[in-house]
């Protein structure tokens, strides 16, 4: 292993090691002179994160090296030509060509191109009047020893199915290595499966291959899911995308970084599969488990690498420029940052908004989720901000209307791929984004007290937003909690006023000390009319409203009712579901299906998830109107006249839109033989049914504001 070039210059060195290894970390403190300069409030450190993928992500240091080359000695704002005006698109592209020529196989790895790219940026900074220095540290380096040579296959009823690497599965970064790990498939894709496999060790996965959700917002991170599987004795882990996630098979890092900088990995194979493959695995895995075989050939070693730092005598801000071909102009949502850096990050966001609005350019506010190019700074409370033109996510119809390009296509089709090179550049947006960054950098550069400016300046927007008004702090916290962003300052101003009104209503209600209290939820920026039109149900009236479906429930005489009952605690109620945000008014389907799920569990002792989409698509001939509404009377009539069964959710997943009926009697998850109805307005009959029989369907008038 190579040693640092000069440990005397090293501000900090951290040794990263795998889980279970001894603590070999060490730190070298900055030299006293450098430490003093860092503490000086007049200096801001420009942190350069070196990335070798040239087309999607270009670091601002490279842009500065080109733009400032015209007058590298200038440090004041008195130059005749502003930094924005000095941006030249051809010079920018030539700098990218030079940088690309330093890479090997267009790779980010420290083993084959990173150091050359870092050296390029270091030399550019030095040639343009900066005083760069290097921060050395060791990192774990993951290598897929046999690219394209991994194996993933299953055996179903004696038939072998082999999946295709890259299109159906990928080896996850930091995966362990195994030549033919074979075992039965165990799925923990659901919340009821030990909270997606996150609550303690798994006691039913020994010698198995475990299928887990790739969605790290469900339960816990990929690392802790894999660690729990490993502790339970699993041989390998498969991370599957959720239904509706149309991205390709993931390759994300399965690792954990502790507060001390330790990197921990899990020594079992981990592969990622598409949503289609994950659904296929779950369907095949019943009633008998599928046999799965996985072979991966990987290794994790350590390498010495470095960051590049450059000092300026006034404010520069860490930013990232992007130029995806199917782009959006995205601004990171600084108003959702943690409280310690909220004010400064919001100011940076507002500067970008100011530039785009002043120049008549469309923009999107995008989530500030802690991506690798800025997340480490936020982790240690360094304010951040920047631009984003897209990665692997698909362009929406609204974005297509604002920017053109291809709808439902990746914003950057070459994101983290070999084709991510100089040909993968949208030159016009590259110049737009570079000029925006230059505007922000120059504005910050001109401030006498950058810290005071970042933390206290409230910029004037095209449509002023009174963020210092009533409930201002609660508003910021609410947006961060629910990860809510807005397309423009005008839209945010409108939503803030609605949210204020709803907050006042909540406080006024709770002050009355009634039998129930209210609190703010994720729907707080909607009016009651908007909430009703988007999220609630349309009950369709029957022409033959007197038609009776089922038998009347007659409470048994002298039956002793329980004082209270919670059917959830008896494990017969499936988890709370959402009918979605797509104006599909399908509550009639959810209520009917939910009641059948519960009574099936009471009768058989086994919970099953049934298909609401089956009801939406197939009951229109019985008076329901699909996503335009329906009622449970029509729904029960359809089910009873159709043999009494409903397909499973796994076979017939929810789409929140009208589709063609594809009911399959071979995929039925539960059946009913009859229905009981409760006498209207009889609370005693309702109480008896709930206490003695099980969950019932009720309709509630949701139009009152308190139900939002």
UniProtKB/TrEMBL annotation:
Coiled coil: none annotated. Belongs to the peptidase C1 family. It comes from Amphimedon queenslandica. The keyword Membrane applies. Keywords: Membrane, Transmembrane, Transmembrane helix. Residues 475-531 form the Cathepsin propeptide inhibitor domain. One of its GO terms (biological process) is proteolysis. Residues 561-708 form the Peptidase C1A papain C-terminal domain. InterPro entries: PA_dom_sf (IPR046450), PA_domain (IPR003137), Papain-like_cys_pep_sf (IPR038765), Peptidase_C1A (IPR013128), Peptidase_C1A_C (IPR000668), Peptidase_C1A_papain-like (IPR039417), Peptidase_M28 (IPR007484), Prot_inhib_I29 (IPR013201). It comes from the Eukaryota. GO terms for molecular function: cysteine-type peptidase activity. The chain crosses the membrane at residues 43-68. This is Peptidase C1A papain C-terminal domain-containing protein.
């Amino acid at each position: 292993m190579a040693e640092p070039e000069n440990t005397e210059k090293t501000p900090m060195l951290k040794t990263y090691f795998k889980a279970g290894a001894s603590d070999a970390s060490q730190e070298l403190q900055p030299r006293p002179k450098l430490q003093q300069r860092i503490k000086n409030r007049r200096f801001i450190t420009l942190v350069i994160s070196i990335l070798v993928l040239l087309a999607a992500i270009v670091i601002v240091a490279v842009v500065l090296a080109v733009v400032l080359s015209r007058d590298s000695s200038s440090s004041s704002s008195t130059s005749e030509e502003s930094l924005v005006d000095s941006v030249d698109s051809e010079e920018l592209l030539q700098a990218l060509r030079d940088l690309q020529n330093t890479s090997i196989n267009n790779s980010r790895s420290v083993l084959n191109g990173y150091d050359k790219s870092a050296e390029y940026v270091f030399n550019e900074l030095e040639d343009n009047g900066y005083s760069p220095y290097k921060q050395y540290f060791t990192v774990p380096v993951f290598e897929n020893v046999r690219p394209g040579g991994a194996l993933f296959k299953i055996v179903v009823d004696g038939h072998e199915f082999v999946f295709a690497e890259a299109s159906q599965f990928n080896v996850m970064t930091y995966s362990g290595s195994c030549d033919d790990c074979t075992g039965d498939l165990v799925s923990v894709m659901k919340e009821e499966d030990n909270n997606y496999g996150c609550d303690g060790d798994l006691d039913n996965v020994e010698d198995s291959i475990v299928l887990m959700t790739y969605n790290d917002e469900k339960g816990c991170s990929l690392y802790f899911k894999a660690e729990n599987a490993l502790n339970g004795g699993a041989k390998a882990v498969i991370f599957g995308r959720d239904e509706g996630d149309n991205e390709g098979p993931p390759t994300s890092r399965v690792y954990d970084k502790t507060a001390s900088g330790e990197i921990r990995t899990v020594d079992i194979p981990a592969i990622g599969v598409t949503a289609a493959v994950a659904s296929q695995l779950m369907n095949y895995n019943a009633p008998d488990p599928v046999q799965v075989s996985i072979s991966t050939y990987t290794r994790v070693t350590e390498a010495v690498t470095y960051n590049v730092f450059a000092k300026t005598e006034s404010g520069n801000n860490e930013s990232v420029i992007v130029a995806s071909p199917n782009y959006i102009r995205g601004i990171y949502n600084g108003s959702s940052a943690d409280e310690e850096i909220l004010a400064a990050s919001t100011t940076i966001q507002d500067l970008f908004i100011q530039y785009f609005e002043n120049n008549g350019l469309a923009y999107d506010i995008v989530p500030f989720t802690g991506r690798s190019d800025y997340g480490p700074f936020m982790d240690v409370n360094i304010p951040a901000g920047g631009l984003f033109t897209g990665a692997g996510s698909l362009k929406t119809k609204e974005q297509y209307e604002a920017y053109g390009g291809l709808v439902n296509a990746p914003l950057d089709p070459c994101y983290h791929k070999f084709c991510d090179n100089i040909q993968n550049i949208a030159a016009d947006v590259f110049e737009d984004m570079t000029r925006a960054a230059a505007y922000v950098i120059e504005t910050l550069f001109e401030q006498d007290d950058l810290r005071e400016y970042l933390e206290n300046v409230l910029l004037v927007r095209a449509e002023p937003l009174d963020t210092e008004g009533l409930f201002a702090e609660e508003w910021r916290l609410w947006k961060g909690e629910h990860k809510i962003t807005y397309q423009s300052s005008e839209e945010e101003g409108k939503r803030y006023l609605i949210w204020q009104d709803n907050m006042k209503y909540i406080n006024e209600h709770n002050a009355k000390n009634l039998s129930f209290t209210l609190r703010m939820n994720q729907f707080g920026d909607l009016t009651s009319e908007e909430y009703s039109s988007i999220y609630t149900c349309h009950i369709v009236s029957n022409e033959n409203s007197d038609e009776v479906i089922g038998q009347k429930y007659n409470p048994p005489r002298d039956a002793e009712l329980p004082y209270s009952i919670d059917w959830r605690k008896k494990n017969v109620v499936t988890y709370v579901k959402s009918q979605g945000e797509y104006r599909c008014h399908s509550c009639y389907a959810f209520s009917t299906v939910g009641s059948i799920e519960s009574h099936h569990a009471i009768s058989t002792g086994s919970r099953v998830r049934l298909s609401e989409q089956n009801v939406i698509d197939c009951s229109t001939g019985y008076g329901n109107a699909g996503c335009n509404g329906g009622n449970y009377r029509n729904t029960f009539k359809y089910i009873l006249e159709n043999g009494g069964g409903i397909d499973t959710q796994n076979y017939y997943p929810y789409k929140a839109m009208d589709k063609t009926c594809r009911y399959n009697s071979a995929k039925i998850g539960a059946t009913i033989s009859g229905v009981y109805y409760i006498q209207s307005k009889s609370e005693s009959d309702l109480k008896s049914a709930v206490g003695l029989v099980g969950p019932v369907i009720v309709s509630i008038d949701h139009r009152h504001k308190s139900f939002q």
